[in-house]
Structures are given as structure tokens and as C-alpha cells.
Amino acid sequence: MSQLSVKHLLGIKDLTKEDIALILATAKNFKEVINRPIKKVPSLRDITIANVFFENSTRTRLSFELAQKRLSADVINFSSSSSSVKKGETLLDTVNNILAMKVDMIVMRHSSVGAPHFLARHIQANIVNAGDGTHEHPTQALLDSFSIQESLGQVEGKKVCIFGDILHSRVALSNIYALKKQNAEVMVCGPNTLLPRYLKDLGVKVELDLRKALQWCDVANVLRIQLERQTIKYFPSLREYSLYYGINKEILDSLNKEILIMHPGPINRGIELTSDVADSSHSVILDQVENGVAVRMAVLYLLAGGVKN
Amino acid sequence: MEKRIIITHQLLQIIIERLCRQIIEKHDSFKHSVILGMQPRGVFLAERIHRKLQELLEKEIPLGYLDTTFYRDDFRRKDIQLRANETRVPFTIEGKNVILVDDVLYTGRTVRAAMDAMIAFGRPERVDLAVLIDRKYSRDLPIQANYVGKGVNCLSSEKVLVELVEQEGIAEDGIWLIKKPN
Fold first, then answer.
1. Euclidean distance between CA atoms B67 and B65, whole angstroms
2. Residue A7 C-alpha, separation from nearest chain B C-alpha, in angstroms
3. A33 touches chain B (CB under 8 A)
């Protein structure tokens, strides 16, 4: 297999196990590329990519932009705060206007679930979902799998627990799909109010006790509490949350094993992770950021060279 | 499918030894020389040349592997997408005399891509090309090899098949000329 089975990367749900393996293997090649004296290859020199961000992002947008530049693609950036969306233009019109300028690929973040799926039905260009509401964030899940593979050798058979705000997290859902497809065991841990009800249908274990979950897992993927998405109060206070679900060095030291600490960023230090954990040798948080560029290069490269129109 | 042998195992040993002697003639003490095998199939030949050269010169010579996939000029122009291989260049190329090694020189496009890929690791002093088989009169680009195992004059409907024991499922070395099925 040297080609993806899909034309767009809308979500991990649509990928096969082989697709994921191909992306991770190609990302390994690109990780070597971005560590060379000249960190650039000419593969996408005849491609123009538009980064269309209807929702704020720093890390993901920078990571995509860097990945595109490392592949020699031409890049245009668009953010909704400075655009005609404010003047009442529809999503399809906005994107069609961008495509009329001869753009080959769209990387889109949108606050509405399914926005990239809607676009995929109406336009020819390849689409990469950079996060749609609380639904999926496929490149984050791929880079998390890449980081697990890099640290632990493989994803298959590993026990991964996702901690925190599962209900509002697109990172959690994409990770669950990605990990299950690679035959890892998945658990989620957080306050009951932040755990969606359909979880058991996805074959995921649920644990409410932080200590038990940590004792079970090989990898702890810790999420941020997304206060901006919470319209009602799901727990009494941040202080109470961090008392019950904050991971600190004391708890990690009390386990009889070492676990890998991951976080998709941005970290709220002192809430879900204390600084001594976030900066410890168990943490691969900054490796995840580096791997993000390599994984996004792999996704863009494989989609650009893939299924012909 | 017609299949004709052009280099046997015995002849291959002799050719590799001759290539090594020719390389030594030009590179003398190998003070600033490095070997780069081209992925995927040039690496086995590069390893053999490397081993022989170390034996003849009784010294360590740097060996690297270079993958050209991301530098190819036919990306998005072919139906089949190539899978990348590992690039491992554990030394700097700046100021070095590089010996690029590949199995078959045909259109010259892979070598062009390799030169681009190589320059990402620094500016070499000089670049030589060593190939086992030179398919003559079939170049798309103005590229030629400095060291040639054997020049072959064949039709575009024919294919050179390189079988080395390092490849999976190959019991004996042999370089073959085969007729492509229509």
C-alpha cells in the first residue's frame, strides 16, 4: 500500500488501518527531512493550499503552514475574523471564491460539526479537517499515535487513557477511532458530567477514579478543560476539578510503573497537569508538537499524490 | 517471458572489485570521500562496494543511504505513488567527494533527484556516479556515470532485472535482461 483510500482527510473514522500505517510510516520519513540542515523538499511545488480557519488556532495553523512550506507548497491564509464571513457570505461561497483563485487543497477549521464533510460534497479540491467543532481533529490523533509509536515502539496492544473533558473534545473522539483501529486498548477518565453517554458503543472503558486509571494505562493523554465550549457548569469549580483530576508528580511517583504523559496543548498549568509533570522526562508534549509537522507533511503529501480527480 | 542473463554471480564479484579499484584510482586516500547508496536498490550495491573498499584500503569509509522519493519530478504525474524509504546520512556532505551508487542508470531522472536530495545535507566538493548497469542511448537528461559495471544497449521494451542475495527471496546474484509483457 502506497496510496490512501480517501481523497479527503475528514476524520479518522473514514480511514482504514492501512491508511493510518501509511501516514505514520511516511511521517517518519518527513521527521528525518525536518531534521536536515535544509529542511525542505520540493514535492508540492506546483500546489497551492489555503488554510481556512473559522475558529482560532495557533499551534495547528502554524504547524500546517510550516508543513506546507517544508513541502514547497504555496500557502494562503484566511481567518474568519478578517473576512467577508462577517458580511454574511456563506461557507460554500467563501470556499468557492478561494478555489476560483486556483487553489488545490483546503485545510479547514470550523466551529460547526460536519462543516468539512459538507464542503467535500460540493467541491473538487482535497480537504483536510483541522478540527470541526466537538467532532474530529484527525491530524492531532495521528500525531498522538505517531508519538506513542516513537516512544513505545508500537500502538497495538498499548493501554491508552484519555483524561479530562471528553464531551467537548474533538481530540478525544479522533484519538479513540485511531487507537481502536490500531488495536490499542482505550479508556477515558474524567468527571461523569464530562463523559458522553455513547462511549461504551465505541468499545472504550470508562473510569471515574484518576488513580485507578493511571495505574491501568501505559499512556496518559491529558486534555484541557474547554471552558469556552461549556455553556453550563459541569463541575463546581476548577479548583475542585484539579483536586480530583489534576495529575501531579506525587500521584505519578506513587504508581509502580512509568507512564508516558501527552497533552495536545494548550496546557492549563496547575489544572489538569502540574508544571513538574508537564516538564518531566515522562512528558513528550514538545515532541508531539515536532511530530505534528511531520505528520501533517505526510497527510498533505499523500493526499496531493493520491486519487486523481 | 524471455529472460537472458547479462551478469552472473562470478562476473559480479570481478566487476565490483574493478569498480573499487577505479574509485581508488581517483579518490586516492579517501580522506574526504563518502559513499551514498541510492534507495531502494542502490544500497545493496553501495554496501558491497563499501565493504570491498574498506577491505582494500583497510580504513573506515562513511556510508549513507539516500532516498529520492520527495525530490522526484514525476510526483502527481504518475498513477502509482511511490513509497518513501529511509534516508540515513550520518555525516555532513559539505566539502566532501561523494560517490553516488545505484544499480541501473536509465533515464537519469533518479540521479537528478538524488543530486537535489544530497544538496540538502551540504555542498559537496565533487560528485561521482557509480552504476552497475548503464542503459546506453536512453537518457532523458545530460547525465553520465563515472564508473560503469557494464554498458547495456537494449530496447525500451526490455527491462533490466537486478537480483542480489540481499533482496528478499533471492538465492543467487544475477543481472537479467527481460522482455516486458505487452
1. 7
2. 14
3. yes
